[in-house]
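Good morning N.,

You mentioned wanting to compare the apo and holo forms, so I went ahead and generated the holo version with magnesium ion. This is what I fed in:
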Amino acid sequence: MTIAALIVAAGRGTRMGPASPGPKQYARIGGSTVLARSLGAFLDHPQVTSVTAVIHADDHALYAEAIAGLVDPDGKLTAPVVGGATRQMSVTNGLEALASRSAPPRLILVHDAARPFVDGATISRVIGALATHPFAIAAERLADTLKRESATGTVAGTLDRSGLWRAQTPQGLGLAAALPLYRKAAAEGHLDFTDDAAVAEWGGLAVALVPGNARNTKITTAEDLAMANQLLQPALEPRTGSGFDVHRFEPGDHVWLCGVKVPHTHKLEGHSDADAPLHALTDAILGALGDGDIGQHFPPSDEKWRGAASRLFVEDAARRVRERGGRITNVDITILCEAPRVGPHREAMRAAIADMLRLTIDRVGVKATTTETMGFTGRREGLAALATATVLLPV
Ligand code: MG
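and this is what came out, ligand included:
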């Protein structure tokens, strides 16, 4: 049995609004395009033997770009067909192209490219119904109560919704029975049927209704597209990391703390600029990723990092988060020292870290404490810093 999928993608997407960069079927969702997802659903279906898109004459370049990453191990995808002025004319062009093959397919599944969430089970149900019906469509029973509007915009009445379905695609048909109907409709000037079942109804063919899928909605507006993108967001889980660092004081006139130059009676000894809070922060982020530590990525033995601004280390850790598809939600730093005083510089420090991590300042905490003159920080031998970072990573 040969079953061809015809993916209708010739529309102009005029309902996407003026901000739309182009036809909705070429919009990107979840790292792919709407069209590629729709094509992929049929390429993946074991019963479908060929997949063909019907595209607008202006869209060859967009199409080539959209299918670039498609996985098609069985070589089912064939060259696109150019559509017509209406959906119905586009389908007619597609059916004619399939009928002109040396071995035309027996069954056709017509699918709107703008329904990227069609699932294999729905496709199977439509194919199954074609065993007993010349025509079959995926559809959903109406759940909402239907109101008729009066001339003044108020409710004129409630419609009986029993027996009402919302038509989806795929819509399946036998090529031999359906193509003459499409030809006849075109010849008689009926060019605006909004779905394939309407052509069948006009021609007197029985159309089977099979349950679709609530997710198999059509992307029509920019809002639909935003919702589709949200649906495809990977699940994220929070990861927390901690960091700790110490540097010794030596004679000098300033220290670097959280990327801010703070005047002091000493400086901090170290290979880089010895910004202990930023070193602790780098380790906290790396810890949340389970990706080693600062010494592993930036060995002190490497002359390249002598005197380096420590924001480089923080920015590298943040880059590693982005590369994993994650994001930092907040960081918190505690500086342990008797002096210098951190308070006067706190806001500058928060702003500097927010800038390094591309976070809003409310996601950055900087605090300080003394150790009540006890221990090495109490004796002013050096300064210590603690940091925590929370990162959201794809599961
Ligand atoms: Mg250090």
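Residues 245, 247, 270, 276, 279 surround magnesium ion (CB under 6 Å).

Happy to go through it together on a call whenever suits you.

Best,
F.
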